[in-house]
Automatic annotation (TrEMBL):
This is Thiamine-monophosphate kinase. Its EC number is 2.7.4.16. It comes from the Bacteria. Keywords: ATP-binding, Kinase, Magnesium, Metal-binding, Nucleotide-binding, Thiamine biosynthesis, Transferase. Mg(2+) 2 binds at D43, D71. It comes from Parazoarcus communis. ATP binds at G117, D118, R142, S209.
Length: 319
């Protein structure tokens, strides 16, 4: 059985690229580059609430960092440093080796130094504090949306929710569809480069973690706008192709959690620019509606033109 210090040394101490003093002292030392503002965010993953305790530890290491990177992406910030709070039921060396390999795979892909953390014993909980940089004043917040802006979403929202439903035996997908959806749930791609490219283009942005409509509600609230979503514009084909029926596909796309796609609002005259970014980055960007001048009112336009008024509720741990 190794000590806490051996464990930290073995699994969480790696060379850093841009940290003056990282793991091993009482505090880390780092310098933001001149003219840059820090963007800081914390996200926790609790076993049994956010993931199944038997989740593959390599995937879990990746996802723990990826969901935090997604928050920085949603501000248009460049990720730089992470701190890892780890609560472990015991020191399972094989589990820790795989977890840290997954975490560092994600860290090196996105240029993040693990600069410190804390390790305690208890029910499995993973917490990351992430720090990123952006030119001062250039953050893309939830509050900048304007009436008439297009509403866009990246990638394929809904896959992760179908993956979760498949793991919980609530839905029957074809074997290929099942694998595709579970992969989306367990190995999300944080849209870091997209977030950076949207600086100066998107007026408002967030990452979709608790369901698209519920999260859109946060933009409506902060930007004092309404929204009209056009069902005919929703990217449903790939969800249908997994074997989900129409109702399951729509619910997964509009209300499913764990997507970590970016939802953003941009002026209609920037459409070509947004599509150019999509092309350059090889990411699908879907224009799904527009902001309206009716504060906090969300409308869905059915394919036959009828208007529906859904509830704006995402996942709430205490509801
Ligand atoms: P202290 O007792 O002074 O708070 P700790 O023993 O908690 O220090 O941590 C020692 C060093 O190891 C610190 O630099 C801390 O940032 C780092 N550390 C502890 N746990 C982790 C972890 N899970 N991941 C990365 N660094 C860690
Ligand atoms: Mg100390």
């Amino acid at each position: 059985m190794s000590s806490e210090f051996e464990l930290i040394h073995r699994h969480f101490t790696r060379p850093t690229a841009h940290t003056d003093l990282a793991v091993g002292d009482d505090a880390a030392l780092m310098r933001p580059r001149p003219g840059m503002q820090l963007a800081v965010s914390t996200d926790m993953l609790v076993a049994g609430t956010h993931f199944f305790p038997d989740t593959d530890p390599h995937d879990l290491g990746w996802k723990t960092l990826a969901v935090n990177l997604s928050d920085l992406a949603a501000m248009g910030a460049e990720p730089r440093w992470a701190f890892l709070g780890l609560t472990l039921p015991g020191a399972d060396e094989a589990w820790l080796a795989a977890f840290s390999a997954g975490l560092f795979a994600c860290a090196s892909r996105y240029g993040v130094d693990l600069a410190g953390g804390d390790t305690t014993r208890g029910p499995l909980t993973l917490s990351i504090t992430i720090l990123g940089e952006l030119p001062a004043g250039k953050a893309i917040t939830r509050a900048g949306g304007h009436t008439g802006d297009d509403i866009w979403v990246s990638g394929q929202p809904g896959l992760a929710a179908l993956g979760l439903a498949a793991l919980q035996h609530r839905i029957d997908l074809g074997p290929t569809g099942r694998e595709h959806c579970i992969r989306a749930l367990q190995h999300p791609t944080p849209r870091v480069e997209l977030g950076l490219a949207l600086r100066g283009i998107a007026n408002a942005m967030l990452d979709v973690s608790d369901g698209l409509l519920g999260d859109l509600g946060h933009i409506l609230e902060r930007s004092d706008c309404g929204a009209e979503i056009d069902i005919a514009l929703l990217p449903l084909a790939e969800l249908r192709a997994t074997g989900a029926d129409e109702a399951q596909a729509r619910r997964a796309l509009l209300a499913g959690g764990d997507d970590y796609e970016l939802l953003f609002c941009a002026p209609a005259d920037r459409r070509d620019t947004v599509l150019k970014i999509a092309h350059e980055q090889g990411i699908a960007l879907h224009r799904i509606g527009r902001l309206t001048g009716h504060p906090r009112q969300l409308m869905l336009r059915e394919t036959d033109g009828r208007l529906l008024y859904p509830m704006l509720s995402g996942y709430d741990h205490f509801a």
